[in-house]
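Troubleshooting: if your tokenizer reports a length mismatch, compare against these two reference records.
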Amino acid sequence: MAIILFIKVQHFQFSLVSCGTSYSKLGCYKDKHTKGHRPLPHLLFTDRNPRSYKSSAKRRIDWENLDTYMEDVVCRCAEQANAQGYMFFGLQFYGMS
């Protein structure tokens, strides 16, 4: 399964989107799901599983407006990663950040 990886951008002029936290896309990377060796081991939230204790009560995946949804989920992930002090964050399996 692939991960789309982003980096927080502070005090720089370039970024793809600014939404309270600026960030730039780094690229796509493969996650082999090796136990104890996950590239991004901490789940910040999920929009896919409403029963998860990490469920985002704010949104469900909007398959009809996926471009708009993806901008929103990346922004929410960037803001949460920033609040928790992470330099990198990523999306995996659509709404899992």
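Reference record two:
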Amino acid sequence: MRLFFIILTAYIIPLPLLAQTLKGRIINEKGEAIPYATIYVEEIALGIVSDDLGEFQTTLENGQYTFIASSLGHEKKKIPVTISQKEATLEIILQEKV
């Protein structure tokens, strides 16, 4: 039983070390925050919603992802993102629909 817990601990402890924090902000071309915009991460089918300041945060494993950012009254934007460091920052600028 003790061996089981040692092996289980060896596999569980490193898991959070693989995840990286990604913080970001969604703004318009004037630099104003876009509240409650959505970001969809295609590869893992993850949806994220920005807060009232246009800010968002999530954890992802190292790798390459495709983000699709959208908000009512703005054009959708597809962004390739590479996560490779402990903490990354991303600023997404959405254009207003005409």
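Descriptive notes for reference record two:
- The chain is about 15% helix and 50% strand.
- Residues 2-12 form the longest helix (11 residues).
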